[in-house]
Fold this sequence. Notes:
By secondary structure, the chain is α/β, with parallel strands linked by helices. It has a domain at 8-86 and 166-175 and 200-244: P-loop containing nucleotide triphosphate hydrolases (Rossmann fold), CATH 3.40.50.300. The chain has 9 helices and 10 strands. It has a 6-stranded mixed beta sheet with strand order 6-7-8-3-9-10, with helices on both faces. The longest helix has 16 residues, at 176-191. It is globular, with a radius of gyration of 20 Å. Its main location: membrane.
Amino acid sequence: xxxxxxxxxxxxxxxxxxxxxxxxxxxxxxxxxxxxxxxxxxxxxxxxxxxxxxxxxxxxxxxxxxxxxxxxxxxxxxxxxxxxxxxxxxxxxxxxxxxxxxxxxxxxxxxxxxxxxxxxxxxxxxxxxxxxxxxxxxxxxxxxxxxxxxxxxxxxxxxxxxxxxxxxxxxxxxxxxxxxxxxxxxxxxxxxxxxxxxxxxxxxxxxxxxxxxxxxxxxxxxxxxxxxxxxxxxxxxxxxxxxxxxxxxxxxxxxxxxxxx
Length: 261
């Protein structure tokens, strides 16, 4: 189910001068980014940094005002159908057809991607075993927990064997056992040549699993490289706080420590 990279193959993802504004407010400003094929790549930044806007443009859900996006060497603007065929996407704000059962939803994802019904059925069975979804597939998605919904949608993002997975907060609201299960599946996918681009607020997770990381603040790229290069002598979380200027001041909160009677 997983793709293979070949020597000399193009990067999984390239962004050049990508910008996006909303009503005069700049969300992403001239972003340059290269995600090598076969990498586990982390995208981090504070709330409002432009991560979700960036992920949405990569997924083809938003058009950049300026700049170029290539997926596996294919220009997203010029050939969106071919570029999107290379992508599997898990958005941050989950929206799905929640009156379908899990099996119906995965079947829909598969046939929408052009897979034959027999192939879809086999892959549903494979993914259900891998994600521990077998017993849940007969229930409607509206009855799923947040973590279970995320797992079935991640399975849907993988069903067509994409070259690049774009995952916005894939571990949010997922219990530790399921998180370990998902991470094992994604690690095997990358080991066989797939590429994962994920955003997360979990710095320890990014530090532990990612080969490269980019820090975005105010829609601009402030640091990029291997995890060791970006963090330097600090932890990744310390480096992130330093770059983002997110340190909190306690000045003026002295009253908080007087306590009410």
